[in-house]
Amino acid sequence: MTPSFEAHRTADRRLTVLLLLADSTGYSANEYTLVAVLSDMGHEVSNDKLHSELAWLQEQGLVSLTKVGGLTIAKLTTRGLDVARGRAVVPGVKRPDPD
After folding, report:
1. Mind listing the pLDDT tens digit for each residue in 8-18?
2. Is-contact 18 86, C-beta < 8 A?
């Protein structure tokens, strides 16, 4: 895989996580749900990879993470919603299409 292809996949995967959370009740989802839905959307990720992505998104202020009984729950922040909707830009996250 070329670095450019992997960078595009990573940026798209991050946007997909934000969009999934934006469409979720309460703007949140647990790690198992995210892995399953990402897989359905063409992003096969391990739990470790998802944890890395969620940690990166948290560092950018796009999600907050909570541990409940060893389970990670991600919740979209207001800034994360702005990025998911295309109102803000964060390098490393794909911009959504204008439609």
Report:
1. 999 999 999 99
2. no
* Strand arrangement, sheet containing 71-76: 28-30, 71-76, 63-68
What tens digit of pLDDT does each residue of 67-78 get?
999 999 999 999
Q: Which residue matches tokens 């911009």? A: 95
Closest CA to 66 of 54, 48, 78, 52: 54
How far is Cα 42 from Cα 21, in angstroms, rounded to an integer?
17
Helix 3-22 to helix 47-59 angle (10° resolution) is 80
Contacts of 53 (CB under 8 A, 6+ apart): 10, 13, 14, 17, 45
| Residue 29, helix vs strand vs coil | strand
Which residue carries 């940690």 as its tokens?
55
This prediction has a pTM of 0.94
Distant-in-sequence, close-in-space partners of 45: CB < 8 Å, separation ≥ 6: 13, 35, 38, 39, 53
